[in-house]
Amino acid sequence: MFNFSFFLILIEVARTRLRQEGDKYKTFFQTLGLIIKEEGVYGMYKGMATHMIRQIPNTAIVMTTYELIVKYWKTNHEYNLSTHEE
User: Which of 51, 65, 43 is nearest to 2 (CA)?
Assistant: First the structure.
C-alpha cells in the first residue's frame, strides 16, 4: 500500500492544485513541473502524512467488509467455484 500511495500522492497534489482558483495551474504536467520548480520534490509530498492518515483506515474498512462478505457468502451458499454449480 505504501508504494502505491507514494506515487498516487502526486496525482492528488496536482488535482488539488488544479482545483485552486486562478490561472497559475493549467494542465496536469504543467502543475507537477511548476510545483517541483517552485517547491522542490518535497513539495510533491507535503500532504503525504495526511493522505496516509486518511487512507489507512479507509483500506482497513474496505478489506474488513470484503472479508465479512466472503465469509458470509461461503457459509450461506453452497457454491462450487471450479464447476460454477450450486
Answer: 51
Task: Report the amino acid identity of residue 28.
Answer: F
CA angle 51, 57, 63 (to 5 degrees): 120
Euclidean distance between CA atoms 68 and 66, whole angstroms? 5
| 41-50 residues labelled b (16+ CB within 10 A) or e (exposed) | eebbeeebee
Q: Give the orientation angle of helix 28-39 with respect to helix 2-19, to 10 degrees.
A: 100
**Could you tell me the mean pLDDT of each successive run of 10 residues in the chain, 86 residues long?**
73 89 92 93 83 86 95 77 54
